[in-house]
Amino acid sequence: MSLTNKILLGMLLGVLVGVIFNLVLGVDGPQTAPTTTYGQWIQTVLINGVLDTIGQIFVASLKLLVVPLVFVSLVCGAASLGGHNRMGALATKTVVLYLCTTSIAIALAMGVAVFIQPGAAVDMALSSTYSAPPAPSIKQTFLDIFPSNPVQAMAEGNMLQVIVFSILFGIAISRTGGEIGSNMKTFFEHLNEVVLKMMLLLMQLAPYGVFCLLAKLFANIGFAAIIDLAKYFFTVLFVLLLHGFVVYGLLIKTLSGLNPVIFFKKMWKVAVFAFSTASSNATLPVTMRTVEHDLGVDNKVSSFSVPLGATINMDGTAIMQGVATVFIAQVYNIDIGMSGYLMVILTATLASIGTAGVPSVGLVMLAMVLQSVGLPVEGIALIIGVDRLLDMVRTAVNVTGDATVSVIVAKSENMVDKTRYEDMTLNAEVDPV
Questions:
Q1: FRET partner for 76 with CA separation of 20 to 30 A, picked from 30, 135, 176, 205?
Q2: How far is CA 127 from the centre of its chain?
Q3: What does 191-237 look like in DSSP terms, one character per residue?
């Protein structure tokens, strides 16, 4: 059985086991405790103990690779492109495309939400409160992009600062030239192979980690949260699928001329992995290998665009923000008008860069968006119950967007191996034996 099929099996079994636990224990949220001693033991020892521990170890093992992978791959990419007169154009295309897809995502989300009106019949009573972390100012956002201590940036996982340092380091290697520059470039290329091999070793844990993560999630929340907010949940889900398949498919077809069906078939296993981990950073090693190995994108492009996209490209999160803003406005019966909607699009697009390294980034960004148009931040408490489930889907959309932009940029620079892109036999070779 291939690794992808093992992960799918782990997902299905995890959901099944989690739902069974939820029905047996009769809990309707992570803060709810079973009434029986036996049930409390199951929740404490099995669910929040064994399952949560294995799941967290799995996610931690993947995040272990994020900083070294981003640093090494970006140094390799920048070192290869440093002397290339198209590097500035390539970087500009990548950033502009990421911002454009995010703007399209949130505009599409708001348009669909205004049409469906998911919050029109929802009771305004709040079941919990949400305290939003303070949003950084625009000045601070730009200052935080540039590192004063690269070692500290790596230790804290500040990916924007790591990206800036990696690109500068790679360009410096390319400009050094001679034997020193050549040796340094070769060293990082070899180191990149070692990091990728380490990724393949850790991927063997994926089916078990995915099982534990989903079993714990569904054991604690079940399906009650979805039923209570069904209209909001399925509106977000519909826009995520619409953007993920239709918008990305059209972009690939119109801007690169490549077959989008092949693209989605090869990205399937990446989307599954992103769904199960709900983390773009944890999925980064799989995304990079698929984009380069399966889709035929030159390493010079993939090593730059994919890590950058995992940090600043948040189309799935932008969709949640668009629907949630309209939802909360309808719940509180507040009309923010066309100017308000335009402000939401602008704020959310800029926030996708400025808050990329903040924990619970989706909710933090949503708080910033709500504040920009005068909507009550407390409304976030209404959607917290289903946010974890939607987070898995929007992460899959995020990583698909990263790959889409990488393919389009690479094709515009004639840096896609079309034969490799169209060869469907390559899809199975990524799974380690």
A1: 205
A2: 28
A3: HHHHHHHHHHHHGGGHHHHHHHHHHHHHHHHTTHHHHHTHHHHHHHH
* Nearest-angstrom CA–CA distance, 285 and 263: 18
Determine the Cα–Cα distance for residues 358 and 175; give it in Å rounded to an integer: 34
Can you tell me whether residue 111 is helix, strand or coil?
A: helix
Mean local confidence (pLDDT), 317-338: 85
Listed ranges 268-272, 345-349, 358-362, 366-370; the one with the highest mean pLDDT: 268-272
In the prediction, which pLDDT does 125 show?
Answer: 46
**Which candidate, 61, 394, 36, 392, places its Cα nearest to that of 218?**
392
Comparing CA positions, the residue from 155, 377, 396 lying closest to residue 267 is 396
Range from 144-158, 283-297, 326-340, 363-377 that averages highest in pLDDT:
283-297
Delimit the domains of the chain by residue range: 3-428
Is residue 6 within 8 Å of residue 433, measured between CB atoms? no
Beta bridge partners of 379: none
Reduce the DSSP state of residue 74 to 3 states and report it.
Answer: helix
Phi, psi (rounded to 5 degrees) for 297:
-75, 135
CA–CA separation, 138 and 154 (whole Å): 23
pLDDT exceeds cutoff 90 at 201: no
* Contact (CB, 8 A) for 122 and 382: yes
Name every residue whose Cβ is closer than 8 Å to that of residue 337 and which is 6 or more positions away in sequence.
none
pLDDT at 135 over 60: no
Q: Which CATH superfamily is domain 3-428 in?
A: Sodium:dicarboxylate symporter (1.10.3860.10)
**How far is residue 278 CA from its own chain's centroid?**
7
Two tokens at 126?
A: 């709040």
Distance from first CA to last CA of the chain, Å, rounded?
10
The 8-class DSSP code of residue 32 comes to -
Residue found under tokens 């509106």: 235
Are the beta carbons of 318 and 349 closer than 8 angstroms?
yes
Q: Which two tokens stand for residue 157?
A: 């996982």
Q: What is the mean pLDDT of the chain?
A: 79
pLDDT tens-digit series, residues 165-189 = 888 898 888 888 788 888 998 998 8
- Give 431's pLDDT tier (boundaries 50, 70, 90): very low
Residue-wise over 272-309: b if at least 16 C-beta within 10 A, else e? bbbbbbbbbbbbbbbbbbbbbbbbbbbbbbbbbbbbbb
Could you list the beta-strand ranges (E) of 58-184.
Answer: none
288 in Cβ contact with 193 (< 8 Å)? no
Q: What three-state secondary structure class fits 314? A: coil
